[in-house]
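Q: I have 395 residues here and want to know how they pack in 3D. Can you give me a structure?
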Amino acid sequence: MPLSHFAITKAAPKPRPYKLSDGFGLHLLIEPNGSKKWRFRYRFGGREKMIALGTYPATPLGDARTKRDQARRLLESGVDPSAQRREVKAAEALVAASTFGVVAAEVLANKEANEAADSTLSKNRWLLENLAAPLASRPIAEITAAEILDLLRRVEKTGRRESARRLRGAIGSVFRYAIVTLRATSDPTLAIHGALLAPKVRHRAAILDEKEFGGLMRAIDAYDGWPTLTAALKFTALTFARPGEVRGALRKEFDLAKAVWRIAPERGKMRRPHDVPLSPQAMRVIEDIWPLSDHNELVFASIRSPRKPLSESAMNSALRRMGYTADEMTAHGFRSSASTILNSRGFNPDVIEAALGHQDEDEIRRTYNRAKYWQERVKLMNDWADLLDAFRGMR
């Protein structure tokens, strides 16, 4: 006899579980603790099986009957309801493990495992975890090019054209990883290539006049700030290395006996080793501050903590206190200053490029030039240091 709402409501718990049948395999199991559970019993492949259909009253009688009828239709078509349920759960689990946020987290974990530079990791986390946050919960295979373009244009409208361009690339890397891990079949960012506005080129300010550069060196010599900050500015001027490479310089990277600074591949922008010959003037800068880092790894430690490097803002702030505006000089501008002045004086452009640590697209040529130009680079660094001394005397 079919069940009624009245019969179900009145069914009281007993010391042992018991069943109330509704017909066609559906019954309500009454537990001693008072819980009421819908069960569907059936036969498939000669074996008796049972699946749960919910609890009462969360699943009312009508809904339980609907679920039973759906299961019976599966049986009539030769499908085991229990197996079909497992497949659905597996598919749902796959979708949950295939959201953009999950795949992006795997991409970031891979970058970290491959020892990507801290700055690279930080930028990618910001792009994928912050700017791409609206995509995080979306199944990656369902995300469309239009959806991504809408996100990118919202970023673009805030004036951050370069961020929008970088975000497209970061999102594309997540899709490419999803493809090779069989969670997506295509990269929709390819369809929107060229749809964004070109980034506005921002040239880093640099002093290119020799006399004015000499004035800058005198200002740095007279600066009475934190010793490692002053030293970092001098060292950057002498080596024209990237500010991030200088700020993160480690004691173990320096061979003081051979006057060489060996920048580790994971710290360099080009992700390859870069050796910098040190002029006598650069060596003096290092030797003067070397005792300050006796018990730490960083040569140019932060004012606030010996375990943290100087920030680029600290270097730029020092330049501002010396009277140089952001339109006149920046920490990164030392590279442009050295490159422009050395090229204008007729030094070998290939040697200058090698000293700047610029990547040659040809791997064989890159390896060849690295060895070929070493002695020339040693001389270049010595000549540059001597030029800086001469510039100081220009009035």
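Q: Anything worth noting?
A: The chain is about 50% helix and 10% strand. The CA atoms of residues 108 and 266 lie 15 Å apart.
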